[in-house]
Amino acid sequence: xxxxxxxxxxxxxxxxxxxxxxxxxxxxxxxxxxxxxxxxxxxxxxxxxxxxxxxxxxxxxxxxxxxxxxxxxxxxxxxxxxxxxxxxxxxxxxxxxxxxxxxxxxxxxxxxxxxxxxxxxxxxxxxxxxxxxxxxxxxxxxxxxxxxxxxxxxxxxxxxxxxxxxxxxxxxxxxxxxxxxxxxxxxxx
Length: 189
Ligand SMILES: Cc1cc2nc3c(=O)[nH]c(=O)nc-3n(C[C@H](O)[C@H](O)[C@H](O)COP(=O)(O)O)c2cc1C
What we know:
With 189 residues, the chain is of the alpha/beta class. It is 44% helix and 22% strand.
């Protein structure tokens, strides 16, 4: 099982990236291969001037083409997700998330905008033809300790994240079974 992880915060260190790092640890324990990209891997001019041939965008798209799922993390900015993350998603081909299961993660200053994933990010993931966009994990900054070398989460958040990762993992496994069944049927027609 291979997943792409994408950290969409302009800041490093970052709370949403810390949430992603904790998710990485869980996935690694379950033998999931993770191909990680962070906003800082991309050249700012490529994003600003929509360079569709940016080597990092091509690398992201290639990684997605062989991945089963996408884990994407963002801070809430002005009641939505980060504009820099949008500038990456804008450069992906229209069907970049076809057949992928997606789990979005977001952190915010308060819980006022806890629906931001639902009304802002999810429609974009759907436009990229994601097969299944799971109920995301939303957290406020106070629930995350990202100052220490290994980020830690408040217990209730850690539990919610683990539940979501279990669902993510199971959805990818189901997807693998259904693809194998279709392939088997096609080979025996
Ligand atoms: C430009 C900017 C806009 C923000 N807008 C919001 C907002 O609308 N609602 C909110 O709850 N938090 C907002 N915040 C707070 C961030 O979402 C919060 O600090 C988040 O945890 C940062 O994640 P990061 O450390 O991964 O960048 C904003 C922060 C910045 C810098």
